[in-house]
Amino acid sequence: MTRIKRGYIARRRRTKIRLFASTFRGAHSRLTRTMTQQKMRALVSAHRDRGRQKRDFRRLWITRINAVIRENKISYSYSRLIYDLHKGQLLLNRKILAQIAISNRNCLYMISNEIIK
After folding, report:
1. N or C: which terminus of the chain carries fewer CB neighbours within 10 A?
2. What's the rounded mean pLDDT across residues 28-43?
3. Looking at per-residue confidence, does 49 or 113 come out higher?
4. So where are the chain's domains?
5. How far is it, in rounded angstroms, from Cα 97 to Cα 107?
């Protein structure tokens, strides 16, 4: 009986995994089984941390806005400012408010003073 060579499909799959894991350290980039495990682990972490990143940035923006507002004592607190913004139908999200707070504090003070009136 003649020898049958294996196909290329498994090799192609392993090559794909090897390219993904090429930057990993040690056996994680050399051994096929550990490469597959680490690839799955990396993808799980990436998926989990996409949600966490949104949470972390929202927390950062809230902290920045609150710090600038309390610094000058022009107005109350962060929660009061957000409440007044929604009540005044001024639709600025927290990212934009944080950018205004960092780059141009006077503008944030003007916004908060206009809302109070």
Report:
1. N
2. 96
3. 49
4. 8-116
5. 10
Q: Token pair of 37, please?
A: 């495990």
- Tokens coding 75: 């107005």
Which residue in this structure is represented by tokens 């999200």?
A: 93
- Within 8 A by CB and 6+ apart from 66, the residues are 77, 78
- The two tokens of residue 69 are 């507002």
User: Cα–Cα distances in Å, from 10 out to 6, 40, 43, 54?
Assistant: 9, 18, 21, 37
- Which pLDDT score is estimated for 73? 66
Per-residue confidence at 109, pLDDT binned at 50, 70, 90?
confident
Contact 5, 27 (CB under 8 A): no
Helices 32-72, 94-103: inter-axial angle, 10-degree rounding: 60
Amino acid at 39: K
Among candidate residues 86, 88, 104, 87, the one with its CA nearest the CA of residue 96? 104
